[in-house]
Design goal:
410 residues; 26% helix
Length: 410
């Protein structure tokens, strides 16, 4: 190896590591973090074929594949993502170099193509979740990284620690507690902001501070927003929940949960804690009928008050589906329920026994001849800590939190 080649490799190492991607590595969130920090990613044509075969898969694996494919496509000059059709040794002016050849396919078994490439490029690290490819790499003294698959803890069929040789090249990125950031197909970055887009294939529901936003039109997203993507595939519907963690052009979201389900299994969505609006959208895509509304929900939709006043007490319409709790606030401070007056705020907390969720309705007390209420706002929470994202007083947050914890099934 001549001096210029050695210097080139030294510069590459200083800039960052070079990895060659194995398809199965995208089962791991750690892989996406490694890719984000890498100097260069090598993708062979055989790997591209495998990625294409799985690009419509659900869950983080499918999303990681689509993210890498899109980022590679955007990088048209191959500054970070280098797509290699093949290689062949050429000698020019006394120097040997490897030139890509269109349509190259040396080995049917893609692992051997990866090994073959690394044997000729000594500064490349294999990124894989395949034990056998790691063993092949070990045989040829090729460095590799074996990130932990996202499904390891659920499957329970892998050891939590990697048994590969502990060389400096085999260390896994130490961010296991952090979910990898990803992009969402259907979300666009424009003029410094993220927006949902409209199409006939996928539907997007956005939740902000526990409230669903009408997504018939484009929605400008904010950090902490939850985006539910719903798509029908064959006779099933794929639902994925994301959380926006940063407003940026890429790597702006994390995946929270997903499901691939048919109409007969629709009730599993409640087990997965998907909100009611998501379930109804899934039913419509699958051709199912909407859930029949209970009496309380019917009252809500007709704008009739759930609350009525009697003998200085505030009463709420009863329902077997909910546990209810009332707080009254006067000038920003909680007061006894029976001490209400015109202008005070009523906070009605309703715990849904079936959906394991909390609905909060905010009313203002008004008076003509008799006391009545004017609805100001409503929220729907799936998790206890979401209470702190709503602009309530600390005193009220703790009251509602205690009520939620009392009844929630965790």
């Amino acid at each position: 190896m001549n001096f210029l080649q050695k210097m080139s490799q030294m510069v590459s190492r200083k800039k960052g590591r070079i990895y060659i991607l194995d398809t199965c590595a995208l089962h791991s969130s750690e892989t996406m973090q490694i890719i984000e920090e890498a100097y260069k990613i090598i993708i062979l044509t055989g790997t591209i074929k495998e990625l294409d075969d799985h690009k419509n898969d659900g869950g983080s694996f499918g999303h990681n594949i689509r993210t890498v494919a899109k980022q590679s496509r955007i990088d048209s000059k191959g500054e970070k993502y280098e797509c290699v059709a093949g290689y062949e040794k050429h000698t020019s002016q006394g120097q040997e170099k490897y030139v890509c050849i269109d349509g190259y396919k040396k080995n049917e078994y893609q692992d051997y193509n990866i090994i073959d490439y690394c044997k000729e490029h000594k500064n490349v690290i294999i990124l894989t979740c395949d034990n056998d490819l790691c063993n092949l790499a070990k045989a040829y003294k090729i460095p590799y990284i074996f990130p932990k698959r996202d499904d390891e803890d659920k499957a329970g069929n892998r050891n939590s620690s990697d048994s590969s040789p502990k060389t400096t090249e085999n260390k896994v990125v130490q961010n296991k507690k952090d979910k990898a950031r990803i992009n969402i197909k259907g979300i666009e970055f424009s003029n410094g902001s993220l927006y949902t887009t409209k199409n006939d294939v996928e539907k997007y529901l956005v939740v902000r501070n526990g409230i669903f936003i009408n997504t018939n039109d484009t929605v400008k997203l904010e950090t902490e927003d939850h985006v539910f993507k719903i798509k029908k595939k064959n006779e099933k519907v794929i639902i994925v929940e994301y959380k926006i963690v940063e407003i940026t052009a890429s790597m702006y979201a994390i995946e929270c949960q997903n499901a691939n389900i048919d109409l007969q299994e629709i009730e599993k969505l409640q087990i997965a804690k998907f909100p009611k609006e998501v379930q109804e959208s899934a039913r419509k895509l699958l051709g199912g009928k909407e859930e029949r509304k209970n009496s309380t929900e019917a009252v809500m939709q007709s704008n009739e008050p759930q609350i009525h006043f009697e003998n200085r007490w505030i009463n709420v319409q009863k329902s077997s589906q909910y546990y209810c709790y009332i707080n009254v606030e006067h000038n920003g401070k909680l007061i006894k329920t029976q001490n209400y007056r015109e202008g005070d705020l009523i906070y009605l907390s309703k715990y849904n026994k079936k959906g394991n969720s909390l609905e909060i309705y905010v009313y203002k007390i008004v008076k003509d001849n008799n006391y009545a209420v004017q609805k100001l706002n409503e929220y729907k929470l799936m998790l206890v800590n979401e209470i702190y994202s709503i602009n309530f007083s600390e005193e009220l947050q703790e009251e509602i939190r205690s009520f939620f914890i009392k009844h929630a099934r965790y």
